[in-house]
Design goal:
Elements lengths: L3 H28 L3 H24 L2 H4 L5 H23 L5 H19 L11 E2 L5 H11 L3 H14 L5 E2 L9 H20 L6 H19 L8
Antiparallel strand pairs: 1-2
Helix pairs in contact: 1-2, 1-4, 2-4, 2-8, 4-5, 4-6, 5-7, 8-9
Length: 231
């Protein structure tokens, strides 16, 4: 009979797997064009992703229930919520030229799959190596800012190319450089993003500018660090 510690540890795995359920719900909502609800589900998946790691370490899940790999489970769920569902959202958004919509989605899932298979996706100082496959955020900004079709397509293909570029992207929670500022901006971003979702992705120019400024900060903060090797 499983011990209490084993049951508690396995519940953490179930909690992580709930991210896959949120991806499933988001995909169903996306097929109906309920985009604000889609990003609400993907936002909840981000919360799950942020909580499950500390829980797993606190309850020593890896040692208590070694049969199940938390790392593999996390990668599966992250691929669904960060890449697969957002790829569908990008392709079905109507913001890209029609002839490029499906090819863009295909490029997203291929480059995202390759990135998640990279054993060196993070540098020794916890920066992401290349664009970290956060297509959920890219899709969110696509729906929020509604750029011209050519600019939207160019942005998607540029980010896909940056997946393999020798540049750094900030991990807001793990990078020590300016960590307090990074966490504060992440919290502000989360509040503003929730406001945008509540307002059906039409929060007005003030929120759009603030969200864009925060995104620009994190992009520039990584680019200003020294380049890294990708192969």
């Amino acid at each position: 009979m499983p011990s209490f510690a084993q049951l508690r540890a396995f519940v953490v795995h179930i909690f992580t797997a709930c991210g896959a359920a949120l991806a499933f719900l988001a995909l169903i909502l996306a097929t109906g064009g309920h985009w604000a609800a889609v990003f609400f589900c993907l936002g909840l998946a981000l919360v799950v992703d942020g909580i499950d790691g500390p829980l797993a370490r606190a309850f020593k899940v890896k040692e208590v229930v070694p049969r199940w790999s938390g790392e593999t489970l996390d990668l599966v769920v992250d691929f669904l919520t960060y890449v697969f569902v957002p790829a569908y959202a990008i392709a079905a958004s109507g913001y890209l030229p029609q002839m490029l919509a499906i090819p863009a989605g295909i490029v997203v899932v291929i480059t995202g799959a390759l990135y998640f298979a990279d054993r060196e996706m993070k540098t020794d100082d916890n920066y992401f190596r290349g664009f970290p496959g956060v297509w959920n955020l890219a899709a969110f900004y696509l729906f929020l800012l509604e750029p011209p079709a050519w600019a939207a397509a160019a942005g998607v293909f540029a980010l896909a190319g940056l997946t393999f570029a020798p540049i750094r992207f900030v991990h807001p929670l793990r990078v020590r450089h300016l960590r307090v500022l990074n966490i504060a901006l992440l919290a502000l971003w989360a509040a503003l993003a929730l406001l945008a979702v509540i307002q059906n992705l039409e929060p007005g120019p003030t929120v759009n500018i603030a969200l864009s400024a925060i995104a620009a900060y994190f992009l520039i903060a990584g680019l200003l660090r020294r380049p890294v090797d990708t192969f």
